[in-house]
Design a protein that fits this description.
There is one protein chain. By secondary structure, the protein is α/β, with parallel strands linked by helices. It is 24% helix and 25% strand. Strand 5, helix 2 and strand 6 form a beta-alpha-beta unit.
Amino acid sequence: GGVALEAIEQVPEIAYKAVTSGEADLAMTNEPPPPDLASFLVCRFPVLAYVGKGHPWSARRSVSLEELTDVPLITSLASGTRRVLRSIEARGLSYHVAHNVTVPRVAQALAASGRGVAILSDDPRFGLHPVRITDESGLVTVAMYASWDRSHYAADVIERCALRLQRYCLEGWPPFEVDEWKSDRVVGLRRSPINW
């Protein structure tokens, strides 16, 4: 027998409460887990700016954090947006959130309709072009953590499941389409260099 999974999308705070209360066995989140949970870093995903084909950035490979202050942003707090917004605020800059949604796919649909730039760590949809977001240290990424209750009766099975997810993220994640403007592949959710 295998492991049966039911995935429910939640913000990290709610996911951790679900694990602590026993409502969930495993949380996969983009915020560091509380120290009372067993956990490890699964991988790091790039946070991308998604734009439509007619957008001025549609032929670009990257934009700086500072450039994000000049466009209406479409955010989804469950998808890496917090890291970008915190980084912009830390520089003393302001930004304009045109839409804040709970589902990343909705953020992408809004970007595809020309309502702003979607800031996400998800796969591309709706013909959007993913643009890398950079800061002074390089590509802006968001971490994915696995966490579970160490006293759970199946803690070893949960850990093995999380390790299999890590292996998939690092070795088996399908690449994005070939970038139409360059000959190499778009980094997207494909594994990027990880500094453990």
